Amino acid sequence: xxxxxxxxxxxxxxxxxxxxxxxxxxxxxxxxxxxxxxxxxxxxxxxxxxxxxxxxxxxxxxxxxxxxxxxxxxxxxxxxxxxxxxxxxxxxxxxxxxxxxxxxxxxxxxxxxxxxxxxxxxxxxxxxxxxxxxxxxxxxxxxxxxxxxxxxxxxxxxxxxxxxxxxxxxxxxxxxxxxxxxxxxxxxxxxxxxxxxxxxxxxxxxxxxxxxxxxxxx
Length: 218
What we know:
Low-confidence stretches: none
């Protein structure tokens, strides 16, 4: 690995791991919040709800619980994507991607940030690979071919390391975006469930009649 590439790769790997650690902390806080809502509510009254007379409250409790778990599931799904450790070669990073896909976003960010590393006239990572292959087979080799081959090792090391970081960063950004709607959804769902599952105690019925004894005075 080149000197520049050898210094970039550990820095990018450390940055990616820092994002993963932050994601763990954030999701841990969300999980603690969910547990707190359940711990603070008694579920013993849920079974006492009558399917007929308490139908509205029972339906509301079930629906609210489902909404809460939808929010929680969305958070965990995004978090798992951040925490999953994936290694990619440069050819995998540069592989053709469907427009709007996660890989396409990665390639666009790499090209935007490291356009100076690409040979003149090259605008895509796949085009860079083709240019390197062209330089390898050129006979005789031109000065531009030698320049491409001289820099390919360093450039590929940098682009691969940066690609790994951007891959995690984009997923972390998606997690943060999901938290903005999923956490309020989760709290509202679980909170509403706790209210619906714990109806207030029935007030005692007033007596059907009252007896008043009045004394006489002289």
